[in-house]
């Protein structure tokens, strides 16, 4: 299973050579999955990444290309579209921008309230028969939505990309606070964590270091958390970001963590989280450091 994934949402203003350096830095530490979406940079992120691959075609066989489609950026009406024709068109356009013959993974970016499992199945069947997509998944889907979609598709849905972090973990804390009146006991997860674990769907955690608006790491609003992060970073000889990633890795669900950094050196620093195994006490101490309480 993947541990880390390199997110490519912020590469738009980089040069092709800088993107190549970012790819190399990830491969150097064993990270080979690169996550895109058709809406990132209005398609420019995929185009730039494709340019970097064109200049170094030997990299294609070393990496896993993942992209997403299904969000319509239309000024007249922001909406989602999971119809067969739209998803097929999204995949083909991403392939063209990336300058490759196929994409390894195609994810539906957001659930469309009007989606029909049988219609989505047509898209997946077409993309499979054309040989342009190897694997499929979703993003921001609940467990029941995945089950509904899976009911119409022959292809196994293998991935679900969701916002999960030490800061934002309703799907984790609900299970510990079940049947309680206070806020942490509210089921915002819809059974997604358990569904994914039971059905072999890997959860890809996006925004793993983000607080309300900016990173919670180093934010003076959270002194207890950051004091503990510094202490643990010193103990394990890693950066605080690596400790935050290791907190997710400690969970038995087998999370993958999506890094959004565009700095090669930060990639290498955070990747050291793979060698950190927090104790149960440390895991819970980090959970409590944001003022949370358990029953």
Could you please describe the fold and organization of this structure?
Helices cover 39% and strands 16% of the residues. The chain is α/β, with parallel strands linked by helices and 295 residues long. It is globular. The mean pLDDT is 97.
Tags for this entry?
single chain, alpha/beta, two-stranded antiparallel sheet, 10 strands, globular
Task: Describe, in short, the structure shown.
The chain is 39% helix and 16% strand. It is of the alpha/beta class and 295 residues long.
Are there runs of 5+ residues with pLDDT below 50, and where? none
Mean pLDDT across the residues is 97
The coarse silhouette is: globular
- Going by helix content, strand content and strand pairing, the class is alpha/beta
Topology (elements, then pairings):
Layout lengths: L3 E4 L8 H13 L4 E3 L8 H12 L8 E6 L1 E2 L6 E2 L3 H15 L4 E6 L8 H13 L3 E7 L3 H8 L6 E7 L6 H7 L15 H7 L3 E5 L16 H14 L3 H10 L6 E4 L4 H7 L9 H9 L7
Parallel strand pairs: 1-2, 1-10, 2-3, 3-6, 6-7, 7-8, 8-9, 9-10
Antiparallel strand pairs: 4-5
Helix pairs in contact: 1-2, 1-10, 2-3, 3-4, 8-9, 8-11
